[in-house]
Amino acid sequence: MELIKGRPADETGRLEKEIRVYDLLDKLGMEYYRTDHEPATTMEVCNDIDKILDTLICKNLFLCNRQKTNFYMLMMPGDKPFKTKDLSKQINSARLSFADESYMEEFLDITPGSVSIMGLMNDTDNHVQLLMDKEVLEGESLGCHPCINTSSLKLKTKEVMEKFLPAVHHEAVIVELPRYDISE
């Protein structure tokens, strides 16, 4: 695996939704680095990707309320544990759970294992509210998939907040999730 600036030179065999991500990032004038890899389905692969990107790789969780009327994408540091009670209080939504993958595909045009902030470009009706852990904003850059888990991107956090999110008509709600001692 290597880190390459910008989009792939040869886009043969790449999915349309991945190419749309590169098209949007280029249109917005955003700088990004990319690495291609086997599907990121194991922690070993993810750890290798982390080393190549040399940035915070975000864990992205697709959640909903019990009634399945409110949907959320939570971006948080990959090494931070997630407990629904910590988030529920902050967004006034009891009984959060993982949303069905059918909603993920319908709203974000992504499949399990590929959840990424880039999917918000496909959520033109704003069904999904972005929730971002405060720690994500502390890094100069962040890592995410371009809507497919066989590539990973390194983006400047400031550009994601100031260029990407306004372009896709989404705002981040900043939440603060605690870190727990191993003993908890």
Automatic annotation (TrEMBL):
Gene3D superfamilies (alphabetical): YbaK/aminoacyl-tRNA synthetase-associated domain
Molecular function (Gene Ontology), one example: aminoacyl-tRNA deacylase activity
InterPro entries: ProX/PRXD1 (IPR040285), YbaK/aa-tRNA-synt-asso_dom_sf (IPR036754), YbaK/aa-tRNA-synth-assoc-dom (IPR007214)
Short name of any one Pfam family annotated for the protein: tRNA_edit
Keyword annotations: Aminoacyl-tRNA synthetase, Ligase
Domain annotation YbaK/aminoacyl-tRNA synthetase-associated: ranges: 37-161
Keyword Aminoacyl-tRNA synthetase appears in the UniProt entry: yes
Family statement: Belongs to the PRORSD1 family.
Record protein name field: Prolyl-tRNA synthetase / glutamyl-tRNA synthetase
